[in-house]
Amino acid sequence: MSRVQLALVIDLNVCVGCHACVTSCKEWNTAGAAGPLSDLDPYGADPHGTFLNRVQTFEVGEFPHTQTVHFPKSCLHCEDPPCVPVCPTGASYKRESDGIVLVDYDKCIGCKYCAWACPYGARELDANQKVMKKCTLCVDRIYDTTMAEADRKPACVLACPTSARIFGDIHDPHSDASCAIHENGGYALMPEWATQPANHYLPRRTTRIRIHQDELVRADNPLRVEGHLPKPAEGASTLDDATTW
Amino acid sequence: MRPALSVLLLTTLIGAGQGLFLALFTVQSYALLGLLPRTEESVFLGAGSAIALALLVAGLVASFFHLGRPERAWRSAGQWRTSWLSREVIVLPAFMGVVALYGLAHGFALNPLLTTLPQGLAIDASVVLGMLGTLLAFALFVCTAMIYACLRFLAEWHSPLTLVNYILLGGASGFTLAAGLAGLAAPRLVAFLAGWAIVITVLAAIGRLASLWRNARLKPLSTIQSAIGIKHPKVVQKSQGFMGGSFNTQEFFHGTSAGRLRAVKHAFVVLTFVVPVVLLLAGRDLASAPLLLAAFIVQYAGLLAERWFFFAQANHPQNIYYQAVS
User: Is the pLDDT of residue A232 over 70?
Assistant: First the structure.
């Protein structure tokens, strides 16, 4: 098990399904040194694309008691990744240093066996390059010291307008990602296969505000009147002059 | 899963090649132990080995069409410690080499006597090569089958029956082909080889029907609830996130109707097992090479359908995520 395990924690409670993470992922990863994420016939009748991140939409419940759940899906960077041992060339590997599961595009022979071995469908064969592609957690961003510190995050995290994507080390119990998992009931997908996904999802949560009657009226208001507080005369000393609080 | 022609050809062709080699060495072993009349069958064994080798080469060539980057195929031997595909890539050429040497030993009489056992058994080079080839043939069956059987997400494949069936189906087609070749070149072996072909075909039918019975009763472990982690009895996908095509919507869906799937299943049971057994029985009793060769051709066509069904029937859990376009 790697000492550091970088991962995404995706908050289904706030994801609005805007696909900004999809387009920013595609934009960043199609422009990198590894070559484009190929699209075939992109403006034609039957387009075919390679993406590392997708946002899907599910409806939960029976009408009228339904909720629409937007569900971003990318490689989960499993702690026990089933796609890695089946690779015949060693092109698929999991980094010791930070737990990211990567494909060496120069070694991949495009046999698709790793995709068969992934229960989540997280890998897509590049239609032109004919090698297997997958989420890299923007490994070419997060360690790039020429970027401002705030930019050293996966493109999808930076693009998310609702902060539904939290990036961090889930083996560090004090990281934002770990706290988000522990405090909000974060869970892993398809636990039945014991792949131990590093990416976690935060469930829908009901947020309630309990307001007591005495909170609506200021109990310490001497005049019992809202909005008409005594105003010191012009030039008179106020409490702020007498104390530093 | 989407059946790929390259993989259908690879697995059926090398299966027949392995089976044919096993049939040839069975003939030699029986003759060596005096269970078959000792005759000069070297030409038959040599020519048979050449045909087995041709089947193996054809399978290997077909496999290259499965690769996105075939020019890098040599890299695939690297991860034999963990990958059954890598092990297959190593065992297949090793087996081809032994089959070639075995064929040369018989065909060109390059067969020096190595030792004579106390019981008077003459152990020549072809016996040693034959035993080595038998070991490698079974190792190759294990590697090929384990490529599929080791994937625990694909419940239809993740069973010892996958291993049993790869061995028996490859063996059946190889022995049937051997019977056909004997009909052409060594008529005295027809009854022996056709008999074995019938026995193995019947065993293969039992194994394959058992896996059909098992697979029809499988309950998927993954559900849409576990896939997205929302524990509500009613969850429906409204959008998979894109309206065009993708690798995920093409590679993992066979794209044919349930009716056609059923038709292929019935076709492969008839073509792989029923018709070949009838033709083998008739060919054996009439000592007719055309009937025996027809048995192989029909059985091979049946095996292509069987392998197509093997892939199409496997239901990948990732398909849960790709149920509705929008």
Answer: yes
Report the run of H or E that residue A124 belongs to, with start and end.
Answer: strand A124-125
What integer pLDDT is reported at residue B162 of this predicted model? 97
Residue A226 placed within a domain: no
- Touching B: A residues 150-179, CB under 8 Å: none
Alpha-carbon distance A139 to nearest alpha carbon in chain B (angstroms):
23
Q: Where are the beta strands (DSSP E) in B125-223?
A: none
Say if A40 falls within a structural domain.
yes
Predicted confidence at residue A239, as pLDDT, reads 72
Whether the Cβ atoms of residue B240 and residue B274 lie closer than 8 Å to each other = no
Residue A194 resides in a domain: yes
CATH number for the domain harbouring residue A102: 3.30.70.20
Q: Which of A58, A62, A88 sits opposite B228 (nearest CB)?
A: A58
Question: Could you report the per-residue pLDDT of B231-290, keeping only the tens digit for each?
Answer: 999 999 999 999 999 999 999 999 999 999 999 999 999 999 999 999 999 999 999 999
The span from the CA of B184 to the CA of B178, in Å, is: 10
Q: What is the DSSP letter of B245?
A: B
Mean pLDDT of chain A: 92
Q: What's the helix, strand, coil split of chain A in %, to 5? A: 20, 20, 60
pLDDT band at A61 (very low <50, low <70, confident <90, very high): very high
Give pLDDT tens digits for A149-191. 999 999 999 999 999 999 999 999 999 999 999 999 999 999 9
Buried b or exposed e, range A176-211, using 16+ CB within 10 angstroms: ebbbbbeebebebbbeebebebbbbbbeeeeeeeee
Structural domains of chain B sorted by starting position, each given as residue range(s) with its CATH number in brackets = 5-321 (1.20.1630.10)
Q: Which residue range(s) make up the domain with A17?
A: 6-202
- Give me the number of domains chain A comprises: 1
**Strand, coil or helix: what is A55?**
strand
| The pLDDT of residue A207 is above 70 | yes
Rounded to two decimals, the pTM is 0.90
* Cα–Cα dist A48/A38, whole Å: 9
Closest of B63, B84, B151, B6 to residue A88, by C-alpha: B84
What ipTM score was computed for the predicted complex, to two decimals? Answer: 0.92
CB A49 within 8 Å of CB A63:
no
Alpha helices in A62-175 (DSSP H): 113-116, 139-142, 155-159
For residue B57, give how far its alpha carbon lies from the nearest alpha carbon of chain A (Å).
19
The backbone torsions φ and ψ at residue B239, rounded to the nearest 5 degrees and listed phi first, read: -155, 135
Point out the residue among A62, A73, A85 whose CB comes nearest to the CB of B321: A73
A220 at B interface, C-beta within 8 A: no
In a domain? residue A239: no
